[in-house]
Amino acid sequence: MTQETDSTTGTAGTTGTEFTVERVLAEAAHILAEPTGDIDPAENLFDRGMDSVRMMSLMERWRAAGAEVEFADLAEEPTIQAWVTLLNR
Protein backbone atom coordinates (compact mmCIF):
# COMPACT_ATOMS: atom_id res chain seq x y z
CA MET A 1 0.00 0.00 0.00
CA THR A 2 1.06 3.56 -0.60
CA GLN A 3 0.39 6.89 1.01
CA GLU A 4 -1.32 9.63 -0.97
CA THR A 5 -2.90 12.97 -0.13
CA ASP A 6 -6.66 13.27 -0.57
CA SER A 7 -7.19 16.31 -2.79
CA THR A 8 -10.57 17.08 -1.22
CA THR A 9 -9.45 17.03 2.41
CA GLY A 10 -5.69 17.50 2.21
CA THR A 11 -5.20 14.50 4.46
CA ALA A 12 -2.98 11.52 3.87
CA GLY A 13 -4.74 8.26 3.24
CA THR A 14 -3.83 4.70 2.46
CA THR A 15 -4.62 3.34 -0.96
CA GLY A 16 -5.50 -0.28 -1.50
CA THR A 17 -8.28 -2.56 -0.47
CA GLU A 18 -7.26 -3.67 3.02
CA PHE A 19 -9.66 -2.09 5.47
CA THR A 20 -8.34 -2.46 9.00
CA VAL A 21 -10.01 -1.23 12.17
CA GLU A 22 -7.23 1.35 12.44
CA ARG A 23 -7.78 2.64 8.90
CA VAL A 24 -11.58 2.87 9.11
CA LEU A 25 -11.38 4.39 12.59
CA ALA A 26 -8.89 7.03 11.43
CA GLU A 27 -11.04 7.98 8.43
CA ALA A 28 -14.23 8.16 10.48
CA ALA A 29 -12.51 10.12 13.25
CA HIS A 30 -11.15 12.58 10.70
CA ILE A 31 -14.55 13.23 9.15
CA LEU A 32 -16.08 13.63 12.62
CA ALA A 33 -13.21 15.87 13.79
CA GLU A 34 -12.69 13.57 16.79
CA PRO A 35 -9.47 12.03 18.15
CA THR A 36 -9.23 8.36 17.17
CA GLY A 37 -8.68 7.40 20.80
CA ASP A 38 -12.06 8.82 21.76
CA ILE A 39 -14.05 6.48 19.50
CA ASP A 40 -14.81 2.91 20.53
CA PRO A 41 -14.93 0.62 17.46
CA ALA A 42 -18.19 -0.87 18.81
CA GLU A 43 -19.81 2.54 19.40
CA ASN A 44 -22.77 3.71 17.31
CA LEU A 45 -21.29 6.52 15.22
CA PHE A 46 -24.63 8.33 14.97
CA ASP A 47 -24.13 9.06 18.68
CA ARG A 48 -20.84 10.77 17.72
CA GLY A 49 -22.44 13.01 15.10
CA MET A 50 -22.16 10.82 12.02
CA ASP A 51 -24.82 11.81 9.50
CA SER A 52 -25.80 10.79 5.99
CA VAL A 53 -23.59 13.37 4.28
CA ARG A 54 -20.49 12.28 6.19
CA MET A 55 -21.33 8.63 5.66
CA MET A 56 -21.72 9.21 1.90
CA SER A 57 -18.31 10.89 1.85
CA LEU A 58 -16.71 7.89 3.55
CA MET A 59 -18.56 5.47 1.27
CA GLU A 60 -17.30 7.25 -1.85
CA ARG A 61 -13.74 7.24 -0.51
CA TRP A 62 -13.94 3.52 0.23
CA ARG A 63 -15.50 2.75 -3.15
CA ALA A 64 -12.64 4.62 -4.83
CA ALA A 65 -10.27 2.35 -2.90
CA GLY A 66 -12.05 -0.74 -4.23
CA ALA A 67 -14.74 -1.50 -1.66
CA GLU A 68 -18.13 -2.69 -2.82
CA VAL A 69 -20.36 -1.18 -0.18
CA GLU A 70 -23.84 0.34 -0.18
CA PHE A 71 -25.08 3.24 1.91
CA ALA A 72 -27.93 1.19 3.40
CA ASP A 73 -25.47 -1.43 4.64
CA LEU A 74 -23.36 1.21 6.39
CA ALA A 75 -26.42 2.87 7.91
CA GLU A 76 -27.84 -0.42 9.19
CA GLU A 77 -25.02 -0.90 11.70
CA PRO A 78 -22.97 2.30 12.03
CA THR A 79 -19.98 1.02 13.99
CA ILE A 80 -16.34 0.76 13.00
CA GLN A 81 -16.38 -2.99 13.67
CA ALA A 82 -19.39 -3.57 11.42
CA TRP A 83 -17.99 -1.37 8.69
CA VAL A 84 -14.65 -3.20 8.65
CA THR A 85 -16.53 -6.47 8.15
CA LEU A 86 -18.61 -4.96 5.32
CA LEU A 87 -15.63 -3.36 3.61
CA ASN A 88 -13.59 -6.56 3.61
CA ARG A 89 -16.23 -8.94 2.27
From TrEMBL:
<feature type="domain" description="Carrier">
    <location>
        <begin position="15"/>
        <end position="89"/>
    </location>
</feature>
<protein>
    <submittedName>
        <fullName>Aryl carrier-like protein</fullName>
    </submittedName>
</protein>
<dbReference type="Pfam" id="PF00550">
    <property type="entry name" value="PP-binding"/>
</dbReference>
<dbReference type="InterPro" id="IPR036736">
    <property type="entry name" value="ACP-like_sf"/>
</dbReference>
<dbReference type="InterPro" id="IPR009081">
    <property type="entry name" value="PP-bd_ACP"/>
</dbReference>
